[in-house]
Design goal:
- It comes from Acidithiobacillus montserratensis.
- Keywords: Ubiquinone.
- This is UbiH/UbiF/VisC/COQ6 family ubiquinone biosynthesis hydroxylase.
- By secondary structure, the protein is of the alpha+beta class.
- The chain has eleven helices and 20 strands.
- It has helices at residues 16-26, 40-44, 57-65, 109-123, 170-176, 237-245, 248-259, 307-327, 335-363, 368-383, 385-396; strands spanning 2-12, 32-36, 52-56, 75-77, 79-84, 90-94, 104-108, 126-129, 132-138, 143-148, 153-163, 180-196, 203-209, 212-219, 228-236, 266-269, 273-282, 286-287, 290-292, 298-299.
- The strands form three sheets. Strands 5, 6, 12, 13, 14, 15, 16, 17 and 20 form a nine-stranded mixed beta sheet that branches.
- A hairpin with a 5-residue loop joins strand 5 and strand 6 (90-94).
- Helix 1 packs parallel to helix 4 (109-123), helix 1 packs parallel to helix 8 (307-327) and helix 8 (307-327) runs antiparallel to helix 9 (335-363).
Amino acid sequence: MSVDPHYDLIISGAGMVGASLALAAQQTGLRVAVFEKRPQAICALPDTYERASLVAAGSGRFLQTIGIDVAILGSPVERMRVWDAETTGSIHLDAEEAGESFLGHIVENRRLEQALHAALAEQGVAVFYEQEISTAWADQEQMHISTSNTSRESSYGTTLLAIAEGRQSLLRKQLIQAPVFQEAYGQDAITATVWMEKPHRGIAYQRFLPTGPLAVLPFSPDSAGRPRASIVWSAKHTLARRLMQLDDAAFLAALHQAFGPQLGHFVRIGQRNSYPLSGLHSSRYVGDRCVVLGDSAHGVHPLAGLGVNLGFRDVEALTQSIQEARTRHEDWGDSPALRRYQRARRPDNLVNVMTCGALSHLFSNRSRGLARLRDLGMLGTGLLPPVKRFLIRQAMGL
């Protein structure tokens, strides 16, 4: 077993949230190490599914401060169109109504992750690929961890361990040991890149169907300049399974029928992927010299596009907590600093997890009474400018 020097911060997971935390923390002067169980060669490959996220304007500004420009990585979202398939209700959210140029950018997850990894390499941050933290225990001075791969085992020490491994985090279960709220939504999300006849013009569309919401999001054109979109079609399990079994032509026909004529016909589709949807929220974010953030702490329905944005907010709050502790000459791995992070993030994340779950149930319902309630809510939003401006700024993460 080899013993390596002490780090100020060790991060488990080099996804978008973990990698952005590493970059932000390193730029404040901390000595940072990241452990990622995937091989570096896998992380460097393109994603065959081209999975993408809406990076809200607020998250984009945070990423800009650490040297990542999402404007060159993705497609701008200038407007959002939301409507209910069961009623006449609709909401139009335009960035210009809030005095902004865009609501955010649709960015391919792997491209953003690779940009973060390149920045980490340029800054000299230690990223240990193909290594996973197998055990961890804390004393009053530091967190002790052991990592393993196929060839050797190593031990390290750190002032603070940040866990950004995803929803199935083993370290969260081992170290936080707190009850976790989980709710299955009874839906699967189908994601894919599609080509269509008409350009999207920077508009993100979301149609609420009785079986679940369908989002068609502005994606970058292909190399020949042909318009593309990224879809997230949330559907009840049985329908999702049927859709995944269709050939491409039949799936595109079903997509056109479900979405409507706004973008003309869908003419081509990339590789489809599907996964079950659920809500998740840890009742506690902190343990002895460790914190959880991103999907390890919370998971939301994709209907509002909040997922990774909540993770970036976690990163900002944790970085600020560490900086405050250093300014006060406190131990940033001790309880006072960690509780500040938890107070800053847990209420916001909990509200969003519960709200997205409630909206999913509200719109995935054929009840006439609920349909009328949805219609009135959308009408009221359109007629009340302060409410509309509030929703626009929420969508932008501001």
